[in-house]
TrEMBL record:
CDD domains: alpha_hydroxyacid_oxid_FMN (cd02809). This is Mycofactocin biosynthesis FMN-dependent deaminase MftD. Its cofactor is FMN. Belongs to the FMN-dependent alpha-hydroxy acid dehydrogenase family. One of its GO terms (molecular function) is oxidoreductase activity. The keyword Flavoprotein applies. Pfam families: FMN_dh.
Amino acid sequence: MSDAWFETVAEAQRRAKKRLPKSVYGALVAGSERGLTLRDNVEAFGELGFAPHVAGLSNRRELTTTVLGQPLSMPVLISPTGVQAVHPEAEVAVARAAAARGTAMSLSSFASKSVEEVVAANPKTFFQMYWVGTREVLVQRMDRARAAGAVGLIMTLDWSFSMGRDWGSPVIPERMDLRAMLRFAPEAVTRPKWLWEFAKTRHVPDLTAPNLTPPGGAPPTFFGAYGEWMQTPLPTWEDVAWLRERWGGPFLLKGVTRVDDAKRAADAGVTAISVSNHGGNNLDGTPAPIRVLPSIADAVGGQVEVLLDGGVRRGSDVVKALALGARAVLIGRASLWGLAANGQAGVENVFDILRSGIDSALLGLGHQSVHDLTPADVVIPPGFTRTLGA
Ligand SMILES: Cc1cc2nc3c(=O)[nH]c(=O)nc-3n(C[C@H](O)[C@H](O)[C@H](O)COP(=O)(O)O)c2cc1C
């Protein structure tokens, strides 16, 4: 359907807002407290400019790269997001879209589809875990992902159980029983396209986390799993090194914003880090990842793959991140807006927007390849960068 095509991620977000029930849309906007970090993640990219050339430009541009040993058609991959009820095909649709565009998928352990289904949709799948449960339980979940064919492990550590948003949090039921359905019916009936997608499958969103199912048991509810997480003692750097060792394959530590933490992660033997503040859903007031990226890339860029996630909405954002030292970026909300707007095709649409934006910026900057970008391509205003923990 040609009229389903959108030209920017902002348009995908507008359509997602129209299409999703208010609570589901609110859960994707997320953010915390004042929303300082949520805004800074996006707006900081807008403070950076470009220094383009006008002649002698390259007729062909190369966008390919590798992340955690996987060849990617472009320096953009899917960030893990534990969300439910956006679309019936959920993470499987996202994984297929990433595969169709030649790039990788990251699957949250709080996601609504199993790692087996998602790896079948995209063999370049990384499985993401939080530090939830005992070491034994962590190993069980990790071994299941490995057996399913996940080609990398992501450990996300930057979660501080922040509660409350000044603009209000959506009410999300523990499970979709009759009572919850009646409560949410008024929201859902005003969103006929969304309702129809689920009606066709004859299933309501079940709000469980199938990748956290104990052996021989039933999948926990999203909130049940969250409760287990809140009770788990917090990990040390030795725990991180242990998990990395136990996994044995490519390992990404997600959520680093400080130079000292980046160095500790490198010492713990990780393959990669993602400079990230969890998309501003966490400790509000943490600077945008793009502000702290240069100091971290300087410190550990020679030892580990430095990635970034947070606030990426256009190809030029990707190019700015690469110019300041990232190898690739992960996208969270951009892919969720695409999924909500038009399912798998909507996520492919988002990748196409980013690809053409990267290509256009490379052209303007006079580069042949994403690997040729340097800080000299970017206009950095005074006071833009932040260096934490150096
Ligand atoms: C609704 C939502 C759910 C998320 N769930 C997870 C998760 O389960 N695991 C994780 O590592 N990060 C999670 N994140 C963070 C994303 O992986 C990523 O860091 C963030 O969305 C990047 O910012 P962006 O949305 O501006 O691209 C979530 C983010 C959102 C918006």
